[in-house]
What does this fold into?
Amino acid sequence: MNAPFLSLVIPVYNVGKYLPRTLGSALGQTFRDIEVVPVDDGSADDSREIIGTFAARDSRVRPLLLPRNTGSAWARKAGTEAAGGRFIVYMDGDDTLVPEACGRIAAALRKEPVDLLQFNEKVVDETGLKDEAYRNVKRYLRTYIGRITSDDLIRDCVVTEYIPWNVHGKAFDAALAKRAAGRMKDSHIVMADDLYFFFIFLYYARTYRGLGGKGLYEYYFGRGITGRETLDLATFGKYCRQYIVHTLLEAFLEEEKADEKYFKSLRFLRGTLLGNCVQSYLTLAENDRAAGYEMLMGYVKDGALLDAAIADRLRPAHRRTGPEKFRGFLHKYLPKRQERMLKKIYKKL
It folds into this structure.
């Protein structure tokens, strides 16, 4: 049996409500040279049975059934290592692809192979609010239409925010993806798990291209852990845990004996992770704040740093400090062309 051109890797955890539609969209692609690798991460619902039903119908489904819940980062790693395609497209277990998605992705990669291809996403608002959080996600997920060849794609993609760090909406060179997955350490992560893999992948990658046109990946905002206005302490704990991604990536760079420029980029991203955690902390009910603070301190381990981050987040947006203020200004006030120009300047600061 010849290896497929594309592998669709789908970590699955308790998404039985949405999974038939997700798998149906993957198998319903007009481009047929694919395999679908759903990785059940110890689901307690009927997700595993649904995967079995689809696998019985279509030989292109190659399920992986993990014996226990390991977290989305480790499930995605398992799927990556099992994938047989030349390129890998990652999906969430509650999202979908439009029918022509794989055909357009394959055509672009056959015409011009690159390490990383990004394509447009359609953000579907499941909350019905279309509020600021929804608009921020739409803005964040937009595709940079262009080409980048660089020996430091971490800086040129993620730090400048040309490219969002989520792994959906992209096609990855499988050999590099497997190399990156092989460097990941076993750790139960469900937030910023994309960043853990993506940072390592970009460390090895050299070429990027953004594909224009209609949205090929349908991201459902408001399902799962994202899109919530308020959090309970249990959910907040998952948000806090994203901070350990910094520690894991720091260990990776030390093992690689990496250049200081990569540590500089990681320090920048640490600020982003901390900002995400603090924003989540501020959604807690007042009577949960004390417990939430101690929970977050368990990861940050620096009271002065955490207090400063909370104080900064409580300021009006135009009075915040550092890269967050700069990015917010770019997103809100500048047209796209000027934004790109200023980002190039900011990158050199």
